[in-house]
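Researcher: We're teaching a course module on how sequence relates to structure. For the next exercise, students receive a sequence and then see the predicted structure as tokens, so they can try to spot secondary structure elements on their own. Here is the exercise chain.
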Amino acid sequence: MIVERRQKQRLRSLLGGRISFNQKNCTLDCVVRNVSDDGALLVISDSIALPIAFDLDIARHQRSYVARIRWRDGERVGVAFEAPSSGEVVPLDMARRLKHCEQDNARLKSRIRQLTEAG
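Model: And here is the predicted structure for the students to work with:
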């Protein structure tokens, strides 16, 4: 008999997900088989080594999570989501916009340096 230890029921799904780690330098696709506000069941190749914690983007839900591995059985990986310091899940669109703004900011600072050095 299986004892259910989850506090919230997970909804079955068949969603595409993207795992990223190492400051988003390493990414790989996965399948999200079930999901709740607290965690998810991912399916990835059992030959892929994952760090204990990583970012999980689920584009269909427009959400990005910090996920921590709770268990792994072959291709199936159970993860728990860590709440950001604000206690809310960060919308994926907002995370992308922030990254884009940071890149623009770095580009503008570089251009200002070029102009002040040339002048």
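Model: If you want an answer key for the exercise: The longest strand covers residues 11-21. The radius of gyration is 18 Å.
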